Structure formats: structure tokens, C-alpha cells
Amino acid sequence: MRKPMIAGNWKLHKTLEESSQLAAELVQQLSTINDRDIVIAPVFTALASVSKKITNSPIQLAAQNCYPAETGAFTGEVSPALLGDAGCHYIISGHSERRQLLNETNQFINQKVSATINAGLGAILCIGETLHERETHQMLEVLTSQIKEGLAGISTTQMTRVVIAYEPVWAIGTGVTAGDEQAQEAHAFIRGLLQGLYSQEVAEATRILYGGSVKPNNVDGLMAQTDIDGALVGGASLKAEDFIRIVKFES
């Protein structure tokens, strides 16, 4: 059985005080949960303070991005090792906003995934098609290239540290969610890709999260699907009440 994961991506929101307050609320309400992984990804500036708030709780810390180098003359960047030092267990790579706004390529994202794993952290690799790509029947081709190129050089052993997050770009922050069956179809396709690249064992063990306007009123249906192992939550993770309900999904 794959252990479900609910991850909250706070994106560019919350001051130090607001981040600490939200983290404290989550700890208070989720301290007894142990049958699913709970992850939150604050902004860089809040990582260390949030890490202290969630110590001795079931909540784990993630960073929203990294730079694939250990050290060096890379002004403004943060390495996986430094993020681990700040308390992170996971690093998100390949989010569609970075692909679109910052023109990040599959190859660059692959470097981040590799660097994250080499630093001893878990990699959350985001993939997903745009509305244009879906409507022009390029969806499966896009997902295939994002998976193959994003995981290039990642070994079977290293795959134990990889989580895939499928986020159809047309559903992120739009209020439009892929239907339960639509999402399941994409997840099943992704699992099939992993089986072809690695093995049935790796495919069955790898968690595939759904992201894209996940809310308290749709999480139960999504989590009831065979190949959906959790959620990468955006806007709804910024409100304690909403995120807590999502974490406490019933499938």
C-alpha cells in the first residue's frame, strides 16, 4: 500500500509571523495523524522558523524550489543541502509556474531532482499539460517527455525518494478541477510510464499526487481513485481549516 501524501504549496504568500501562526494551527489540529504524510512548503524566508514550529509533529517541511549545485558563485540561489539544513525533507521541482514563468526545461528540472536526491532529500517532481496541449491531443506526449526527461539518470533505488505530482496547468488556480475519472486516467498513464521506464514494482511503489484546485469539497472523490495517492494543494493550503479538511480526506 502506498502511504497517502497531502502537500501544501504556499507559493508566494505569508510573512514570517503568518507562516508560523498557520504552522502552529496545523500542528494543533493534525498532531495525531499517522496514516498519511503531511507536507507544507512555505517561502524560503519562513523555512527555518516553520521548521521549529513543526518539530515533534507529523508535519514535514518542503522547499518550493532549489538550485542544482552544492556551493559556488550562484547569487540568489539555494542548494538542496542548505534546504536540508533549514529543516526540509522534500523539494518541489518542475512546478508549471516555474516552467512557464521562468522557462525551466525538463533537463534543468532533472538536474534539480538529481541534486535533491543526492542531498538525501525527497524530490516532488511536478508534471502536467496546458489546456492547448490537451485540446490538441498532445497531453500524453507532453507527460511522457516530462517524465522521461525529468527522471533521466535516476536509478531504481533513487526512485524511492521520488514523488510525482500531476498538475494539469489548466486547473491550477482556476477553480476548475479535472474530473475524478479524468485525473485517474492521467495517473494510470503516468504509472504505466514508470513501469516501462523501471519496473512494475517501482511503478506500484511510487506515489502520484494530483494538483489543480484541490479543495475540501472535491478531495474525497479524487482520493477514492485507484492511482491517486495524494494531493499537492495550492490556495486551499493557505487556510488552516481548508487544509486540515483536505488532510482528513475520506475515500
From TrEMBL:
Name of the protein described by the UniProt record: Triosephosphate isomerase
A single cellular component GO annotation: cytosol
Taxonomic placement: Bacteria, Pseudomonadati, Thermodesulfobacteriota, Desulfuromonadia, Geobacterales
Record's function text: Involved in the gluconeogenesis. Catalyzes stereospecifically the conversion of dihydroxyacetone phosphate (DHAP) to D-glyceraldehyde-3-phosphate (G3P).
Pathway: Carbohydrate degradation; glycolysis; D-glyceraldehyde 3-phosphate from glycerone phosphate: step 1/1; Carbohydrate biosynthesis; gluconeogenesis
CDD domains: TIM
Single biological process term from Gene Ontology: glycolytic process
GO molecular function terms attached to this record: triose-phosphate isomerase activity
Recorded family membership: Belongs to the triosephosphate isomerase family.
Entry annotation: catalytic residues: H95, E167
Signal peptide: none
Superkingdom classification of source: Bacteria
First-level EC class: isomerase
EC numbers on record: 5.3.1.1
Catalytic activity: D-glyceraldehyde 3-phosphate = dihydroxyacetone phosphate
Principal subcellular localisation of the protein: cytoplasm
